[in-house]
Amino acid sequence: GLEKKIFNSKVGEKVGLPCCHEIPSSESLQKYRVYWQKNVTEVVLAYAEGKKIKMHERYENRTEMNTSNLTLLISDVEILDNDSYQCVVQRLGSSQGGVLCEVSLTLFVTADFSKPNITAEVFAESCESTEMVVRCSSYGGFPKPKISGTLNNESVVWNDSWVSEASFSPYNVTGKLRLNVTKEDNITCSIEYNGFAKSTSLLLSR
């Protein structure tokens, strides 16, 4: 069957993607053909009759296959590895087309964002209050982030927020806010991505 499985990895880590068949110790890889491919069409790694027959150059030197349980090991994971992968196992010399099994997996790659940096500059001052422009920025992460904030523990919207448009490279995010500070305000900026979050707080006083 075609089960959907999800794996998470961070940039630079090593990840193992399991296949759907284990070769019994009484047999060798020579009786099999194994394809690891991504996005259905691109071959990452292929073995036939015990020999490696194909290797994608982007995976060269950082990818290997365990020859008994057929797990694909990718080290130094990159953002571009974020994709769906298929493992197809064929038994050579069997009559019915020979596909023993195939499995489809999804690899989600995460790159950590920098700790958000909050800056505040005075825009205008009066006797009662100080108008400030507050900016929050964070960079170098993946996937696309959400930016949120609180002002004295109440939710606040970064009314002018911007995320760089990047499909397979790191994202940068910036938020901007205009505030009237009357005494002391505590502002927090949070960046969320793939279940992770990074936050910074700053005390604003006039």
Automatic annotation (TrEMBL):
Pfam families (alphabetical)? C2-set_2, V-set
Top-level taxonomic group: Eukaryota
Membrane topology category: Single-pass type I membrane protein
One GO CC term, this protein: external side of plasma membrane
Question: Ig-like domain spans which residues?
Answer: 12-106
Q: Which UniProt keywords apply?
A: Cell membrane, Disulfide bond, Glycoprotein, Immunoglobulin domain, Membrane, Receptor, Signal, Transmembrane, Transmembrane helix
Q: Does the keyword Glycoprotein apply?
A: yes
Q: What is the annotated localization of this protein?
A: Cell membrane
Query: Where this protein primarily resides, as one coarse class?
Result: membrane
Q: Which residues cross the membrane?
A: none
| GO terms under biological process | cell surface receptor signaling pathway; cellular response to lipopolysaccharide; immune response; negative regulation of T cell proliferation; positive regulation of T cell proliferation; T cell costimulation
Key word Transmembrane helix present? yes
Q: What is this protein called?
A: CD80 protein
UniProt source species: Ceuthmochares aereus
Upper classification of the organism: Eukaryota, Metazoa, Chordata, Craniata, Vertebrata
The coding gene here is Cd80
